[in-house]
Design brief:
The chain has helices at about 5-30, 35-40, 45-55, 55-75, 80-100, 110-115, 125-145, 145-155, 155-160, 165-185, 190-205, 210-235, 240-260. With about 260 residues, it is mainly α. It has a single domain, classed as ABC transporter involved in vitamin B12 uptake, BtuC. The longest helix has 26 residues, at about 210-235. The protein is globular and about 55 Å long.
């Protein structure tokens, strides 16, 4: 079955959605959209590092994404003006990555796949990496779920409950770095944040509990992945952007449904 490239692409999209749905819910709750952008844009620098040093691309992306996420998290705890700082770091990391990758021989022709993804070229090894990374993220979030929700709702309540909000922020930081490494092949560096935010934002209009929102976000992301692949094959459009387009359509539908239900 895995010899079929469409089956591999579909499984990659669903596997990614299982991780981005619950994690994206925290990104939405904590208003960390720019945090996700900065980490995702640093992925291109990780690609350049990996190709220049002959190491696996996934490993290079994970190292750089983790370094960026930890840097941003540290600056946030030290009172930096994060709106401006994250904007500078997000676009600066992307620019540095694009410049660095231009020095690696024979890579320029593949640059678009790193920026926008190439889900149709997913291999069995990529599939194992994606599902392994998704399983790691889900296990991490399940292990710390209640603590993460408590720290997200009210940090003072978390301290009173014996929890350390900074530690929970670190858990999210680690999970985000893994998701960036996993998602690069599927949707590319420029669209990773979209797959974190859009399904979760759509799920918020349909859910009443944090758990329901996380599950709905994963389901919406999976439907968007499959719908985007279908659109790509039908209209010969780029697969990564098509997946995000499908997610945006689902968000609009969820928003309208949520408004009609409240009205």
């Amino acid at each position: 079955m895995l010899d079929d490239f469409l089956t591999r692409a579909a499984l990659a999209g669903v596997g990614l959605s299982l991780a981005t749905g619950p994690l994206g819910s925290f990104v939405v709750w904590r208003r960390m959209a720019y945090f996700g952008d900065a980490t995702a844009h640093a992925a291109i620098l990780g690609v350049a590092l990996a190709l220049a040093s002959n190491m696996p691309v996934g490993a290079g992306v994970l190292v750089v994404a983790l370094a960026m996420a930890l840097t941003v998290s540290t600056l946030a705890t030290r009172g930096w003006a994060m709106d401006t700082t994250l904007g500078v770091m997000a676009h600066g990391a992307l620019a540095f990555g694009l410049v660095a990758i231009s020095f690696v021989p024979g890579v320029r022709s593949d640059l678009q796949s790193w920026l926008f993804g190439d889900i149709l070229a997913v291999t069995r090894g990529d599939l194992a990496f994606i599902w392994g990374g998704a399983a790691l993220v889900l296990a991490l979030l399940a292990w710390r779920w209640q603590a993460l929700v408590t720290a997200t709702v009210n940090e003072e309540l978390a301290w009173a409950s014996g929890l350390n909000p900074d530690r929970e922020r670190l858990v999210l930081t680690l999970a985000l770095a893994v998701v960036v490494a996993v998602a690069l092949k599927v949707v590319g560096a420029l669209l990773i944040a979209a797959m974190l935010i859009i399904p979760a934002a759509a799920a918020r209009a349909l859910s009443r509990t944090p758990e329901a929102m996380a599950a709905a976000a994963a389901a919406i992301g999976a439907v968007a992945a499959l719908g985007g692949l279908a659109l790509s094959l039908w209209q010969d459009t780029p697969a990564g952007p098509s997946i995000v387009t499908a997610a945006a359509v689902l968000f609009a539908a969820a928003a309208l449904f949520g408004r009609a239900r409240r009205g």
